[in-house]
Amino acid sequence: MASDKPIRVAIIGLGFGAEFIPIYQNYPGAEMSAVCRRDPKGLEEVGEKYGIKGRYSDYRELLKDPEIDAVHINSPIPDHAWMSIEALEAGKHVACTVPMATSVEDCKKVVDAQRSSGKVYMMMETVVYSREYLFVHELYEKGELGRLQFLRGSHQQDMEGWPEYWPGLPPMWYATHCVSPCLALLGKHAESVVCHGSGRIAEDLISKYNSPYAIETATFKIKDSDVVAEVTRSLFDTARQYRESFDATGSRKSFEWQQVEGEDPVIHTKSTASAPLTEPEIPKRVKVPDYAHLLPEGIRRFTQPAAIQDADHLSFLQGGGHGGSHPHLVHAFLSAVKGDRPALPDAETSANWTMVGLCAHESAVKGGDRIVIPTF
User: Fold this and answer.
1) 141: buried, middle or exposed (CB in 10 Å: 19+, 13-18, 0-12)?
2) Mean of the pLDDT values across residues 278-286?
3) What is the 3-state secondary structure (H, E, C) of 180-243?
4) What are phi and psi of 89, to 5 degrees?
């Protein structure tokens, strides 16, 4: 897009999605053009609150608007794939909350639509723009971790009380928050996965998706790498405080996520002959810095919890504000639309991160068979 032309954005889904409105409104070179919500009353309330003139209760009518360049989709999970495909076919750039889709077939359709349209598609994965991930990535890039030897992610969450499409959802269908940092750190895709289901959820939860597992744990091989990653996922009937985490084990230093919200993570440093450490000296808690300096000045404040618009939304109460990732996501998406840098994750990468979980659940159903992750 021409650098002097504002990028006109529409947000679809105004629960969690409304959090992004002021970020776009304060982003240099962007224009918050329209919002879309099925509920007319809620639509008008948000439009009035933020002074947005374009208001649609019908998504397909919004896509006909030639004044809209890009859509940011925050709709329920079952709508992600078809909404992304129709937007790309309508010539709009697409940012979509996770996951890309709930089937391998729909992941392929989104990738095909992106390639045919030539427009940007970016899955808005929060963890790879969280301050914790940015900290570990910086350590890795500087060589402080040494050779990466193993990666682990976990996302444990109590979904009781969430909308109707959540109850009974296979845990690995929503695994990108723990899969993504493992793959993004190496900049590679997963090639195969083995997964086992453990435990059993309540019978009334099982029937919707025919998925009985309380916890699913997967290991996946990473293409062109000798590193293997492990991820654990739970949604129901599991006693655990919310945890969205990843660990990176290196030959020189290792990063280990804190056990409990409010603690600091730990860096383990290898003792060597030239720099010997006693056992108590090996682990050390560290303060993770904020990375607002990487952002345009107008949106830097949105890395902090004080800037959260809807602090009572379950995604913030459980997710701790997503590690200050929201303004980084907006910056990455709009930078890709402008052509300043590729989308991260792009369509192919978004599909791979999503399909690790989809194929992992297939593996669990088949008793732990290895499943090759498709490439498109």
Assistant:
1) exposed
2) 98
3) HHHHHHHCCCEEEEEEEEECCCCHHHHHHHCCCCCEEEEEEEECCCCCEEEEEEECCCCCCCCE
4) -65, -25
* pLDDT, tens digit, 9 for 90 and up, residues 304-320: 876 655 545 444 444 44
Where do the DSSP E strands lie in the chain? 7-12, 30-36, 54-56, 70-73, 93-96, 121-123, 148-156, 190-198, 215-222, 228-234, 243-250, 253-256, 266-269, 283-285, 371-372
pLDDT digits (tens, 9 = 90+) for 76-91: 999 999 999 999 999 9
DSSP 343: -
* CA dist list (Å): 165 to 76, 148, 158, 190: 8, 38, 14, 27
Helix axes 176-186, 347-365, angle to 10 degrees: 120
Q: Round to whole Å and give the CA distance between 144 and 138.
A: 9
Residues 135, 144: Cα–Cα separation, whole Å: 11
Q: Hey, what amino acid is at 198?
A: S
* pTM above threshold 0.90: yes
190 contacts 207 by C-beta, under 8 angstroms? no
- Distance, CA of 216 to CA of 173 (rounded, Å): 10
CB 333 within 8 A of CB 100: no
Residue 112's pLDDT is what? 98
